[in-house]
Amino acid sequence: MASRKTTQPKRDTEDKYSILLPTYNERENLPLIVWLLVKYLGESGFNYEIIVIDDGSPDGTLEVAEQLQKIYGGDKILLRPREKKLGLGTAYIHGMKHATGNFIIIMDADLSHHPKFIPEFIQKQKEGNYDVVSGTRYRGDGGVYGWDLRRKLISRGANFLTQVLLRPGASDLTGSFRLYKKSALESLVERCVSKGYVFQMEMIVRARQLNFTIGEVPISFVDRVYGESKLGGNEIVSFAKGLLMLFATT
Amino acid sequence: MLQGSYVINPRRAELALRKAVWRPLKTIKSRVSLPQQVVGRRRGGTPHSLSLTTTTMTKLMQWLFGASLLGGLWALVSFDLLDLNLPHTYREVAWPMPLYLLVSFGCFSLATVGYRVATFNDCDAAAEELQEQIREAREDLRRRGLKV
């Protein structure tokens, strides 16, 4: 359950990590990401569970998830599907309702986020008792694979603009590979109103507002999807609108 | 140097400056304490704050405030609004300042973003490792009975 880290002694057996995996059409990637999660979390001895939140994928992702549940056990893999694509914020809320861990890890299920960083997140969190640990592609030996110059330029440019306008205290705001204390995530999700990239940005900005401590861990982001879906004008416009909204309201 | 048609009263000038600049600065400093208190908003719009005495300024408000402060100061010096009769060099330097600062900031931004793009790490090793692990995973899962 949600044990308050500040009032109990830190024992590894107390901490449980719930990994939320919102999926949509990830039939191919889901088994791979689950295998990697089991490998890295199992090897390091942490107590964990994986919650798959499938939004009615037409490609049969849920069926694959059920097979994985049989292979790895219903205590490790929990299925909490939904009828249709309802958005990330609500997926987190839905997943959290059933999470029994006191820490929540959110990540993408398309293999762009590698589970090998999760033990690093956990260690970082313990070091500073951080409320949020965010994976950053922009600092340390964080980086990306599969981005051309144009994409990198847009990414760094947008990040620079965000840093100037919002001064958020974190280097990577649009990243979605993060570890949260369950209580922190609950307060943040109920306050956030945006969608998509901007939702992730808003989480960090509101975390700052609420005086949550934020730690960072460099991660490598392997983008296998970019080739198929280029960053288009639409996404840039909605990012800009979201940034201005946060600028004016926080 | 401009010839005023009346004598400057230094005390009046000081009081005017204090009213125009220092006092608002102090008030704002005590009111804008950045992450020290919370004004949260539940969806639905009811604000709740943990501190009853201060509020947090939005970033937009901070920028507007800073801009009007600097703008006021610039206008004060450039157009001699308080008839302070500052030496001409002050006015010469102050007048183009906004443009200079804008251009400098533009250059700084370009240089920073350029540097960051150039030093953006490429994770080739990570991509290869992932490919390896995907092969390994598919093999292992097949053995464990996963049907694709």
Automatic annotation (TrEMBL), chain A:
EC number: 2.4.1.83
Biological process (GO), any one: muscle structure development
Family the entry assigns: Belongs to the glycosyltransferase 2 family.
UniProt-listed CDD domains: DPM1_like
GO CC, one annotated term: endoplasmic reticulum membrane
Recorded catalytic activity of this chain's protein: a di-trans,poly-cis-dolichyl phosphate + GDP-alpha-D-mannose = a di-trans,poly-cis-dolichyl beta-D-mannosyl phosphate + GDP
Organism: Oryzias latipes
Gene3D superfamilies the UniProt entry points to: Spore Coat Polysaccharide Biosynthesis Protein SpsA, Chain A (3.90.550.10)
Subcellular location: Endoplasmic reticulum
EC category: transferase
GO molecular function terms attached to this record: dolichyl-phosphate beta-D-mannosyltransferase activity; metal ion binding
Domain Glycosyltransferase 2-like: 18-187
Pathway noted in the entry: Protein modification; protein glycosylation
Name of encoding gene: DPM1
Function: Transfers mannose from GDP-mannose to dolichol monophosphate to form dolichol phosphate mannose (Dol-P-Man) which is the mannosyl donor in pathways leading to N-glycosylation, glycosyl phosphatidylinositol membrane anchoring, and O-mannosylation of proteins; catalytic subunit of the dolichol-phosphate mannose (DPM) synthase complex.
The keyword Nucleotidyltransferase belongs to this UniProt entry's keyword annotation: no
Protein name: Dolichol-phosphate mannosyltransferase subunit 1
Cofactor requirement: Mg(2+); Ca(2+); Mn(2+)
From TrEMBL, chain B:
Main subcellular location: endoplasmic reticulum
GO cellular component annotations of the record: endoplasmic reticulum membrane
Keyword Endoplasmic reticulum: yes
Assembly behavior: Component of the dolichol-phosphate mannose (DPM) synthase complex.
Function according to Swiss-Prot or TrEMBL: Stabilizer subunit of the dolichol-phosphate mannose (DPM) synthase complex; tethers catalytic subunit to the ER.
Family to which this protein belongs: Belongs to the DPM3 family.
Entry protein name: Dolichol-phosphate mannosyltransferase subunit 3
Organism: Oryzias latipes (Japanese rice fish)
